[in-house]
């Protein structure tokens, strides 16, 4: 390997931001640091070239300074933003990773990263599917869909499943898993283009544009005249309230996320919570990190589904590190159509 020193461009958080919307100008691209593309003798680190970066909603929370520890660490202003990504190993002192391997896990929003901890770093076993899939369908969001639907949702054939933010990185996959299981599946999304994808690409039975529905309760009653067995919750707020009114007896709510609340100054209240009691609903939150021990089982199953054409996946790809902040912020305005990722380099 050539021993060279490069200027390592990176995107940093400029400052902590208070509750409320994050903007592109809270982040900046800097090109001041240099990095030697070879590890010193005796190092146990892994040096990688970043290829694809994942934009995920939870990253917003990390931009605010928390007084109490949060479920994810706060970012550190002035240092590269960290998040999931797909990388190529350039040098390694770690026995599990060798030069030329492709890996996915937590990396930096920069061209090259030096990983001193390899906890949560997965070697990519299948390079005959697009590597970018390891930011989405075969990475953290895909595994979230798998855990949330099968483990938390406890689905049965023929049940009625509702998914919010249904065309996104997680939602599109939940819907396809539910169809493979023989469920009746409905999704909500924020544009007609996304609704079209749900019905005509991902095979949902029904879908609606929640921004065009004057009454979410009525929209759900229209799609589920007999009620909802499983709600895959991505959004929270008014949608959760409407869902509670339409759940069936012994229904399950897999509480995956509540994106409508991530950028607000004051969290919204939710009415009709008593339905959880009267309808014997099990509402359970989950965090994907707690389940990574079954990742390999998921990876094998979903790679097979992809190869057999049983599952498709839509990505929204931004080009270049300099466009990463806009791509991340766009998640909260619904600008992404499918899984939002950023290409830094192809090889
Ligand atoms: N529990 C876990 O371990 C875990 C892991 C991964 C993700 N998650 C959660 O899963 C959910 C989906 O994540 P994802 O990665 O798949 O994102 P995504 O759906 O690909 O992108 C976010 C989407 O959320 C919708 N949205 C944004 N602001 C909204 C608002 N105010 N009200 C309603 N919808 C809004 C937009 O779609 P529309 O155009 O349809 O509005 C946007 O495209 C998020 O809540 C995320 O936090 C949880």
Automatic annotation (TrEMBL):
Signal peptide: none annotated. The keyword Oxidoreductase applies. The keyword Oxidoreductase applies. It comes from the Eukaryota. GO terms for molecular function: 2-alkenal reductase [NAD(P)H] activity. Gene3D superfamilies: Medium-chain alcohol dehydrogenases, catalytic domain (3.90.180.10), NAD(P)-binding Rossmann-like Domain (3.40.50.720). Keywords: Oxidoreductase. Residues 31-342 form the Enoyl reductase (ER) domain. SUPFAM superfamilies: GroES-like (SSF50129), NAD(P)-binding Rossmann-fold domains (SSF51735). This is (wild Malaysian banana) hypothetical protein. It comes from Musa acuminata subsp. malaccensis (Wild banana).
């Amino acid at each position: 390997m050539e021993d060279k020193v490069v200027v390592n461009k990176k995107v940093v958080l400029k400052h902590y931001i208070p509750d409320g919307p994050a903007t592109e100008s809270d982040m900046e691209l800097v090109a001041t640091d240099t990095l030697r593309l070879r590890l010193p003798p005796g190092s146990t680190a892994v040096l990688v070239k970043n290829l694809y970066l994942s934009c995920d909603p939870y990253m917003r929370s990390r931009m605010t300074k928390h007084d109490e520890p949060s479920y994810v660490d706060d970012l550190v202003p002035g240092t590269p933003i960290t998040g999931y990504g797909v990388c190529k190993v350039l040098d390694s002192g770690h026995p599990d990773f060798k030069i030329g391997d492709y890996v996915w896990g937590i990396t930096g929003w920069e061209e090259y990263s030096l990983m001193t901890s390899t906890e949560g770093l997965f070697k990519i076993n299948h390079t005959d599917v697009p590597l970018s899939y390891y930011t989405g369908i075969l990475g953290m969001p895909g595994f979230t869909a798998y855990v949330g639907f099968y483990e938390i949702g406890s689905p049965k054939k023929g049940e009625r499943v509702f998914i919010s933010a249904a065309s996104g990185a997680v939602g599109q996959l939940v819907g396809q898993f539910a169809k493979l299981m023989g469920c009746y599946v409905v999704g909500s999304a924020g544009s007609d283009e996304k609704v079209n994808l749900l019905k005509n690409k991902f095979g949902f039975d029904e879908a609606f544009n929640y921004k065009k529905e004057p009454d979410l309760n009525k929209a759900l009653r229209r799609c589920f005249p007999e009620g909802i067995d499983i709600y895959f919750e991505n959004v929270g707020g008014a949608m959760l309230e409407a869902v509670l009114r339409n759940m069936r007896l012994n229904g399950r709510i897999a509480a995956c996320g509540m994106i409508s609340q991530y950028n607000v100054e004051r969290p919204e209240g939710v009415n009709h919570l008593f339905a959880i009691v009267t309808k014997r609903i099990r509402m359970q939150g989950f965090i994907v990190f707690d389940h990574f021990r079954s990742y390999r089982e998921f990876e094998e199953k979903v790679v097979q589904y992809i190869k057999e054409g049983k599952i498709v996946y839509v990505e929204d790809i931004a080009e270049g590190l300099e466009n990463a902040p806009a791509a991340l912020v766009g998640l909260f305005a619904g600008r992404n159509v499918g899984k939002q990722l950023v290409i830094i380099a192809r090889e």
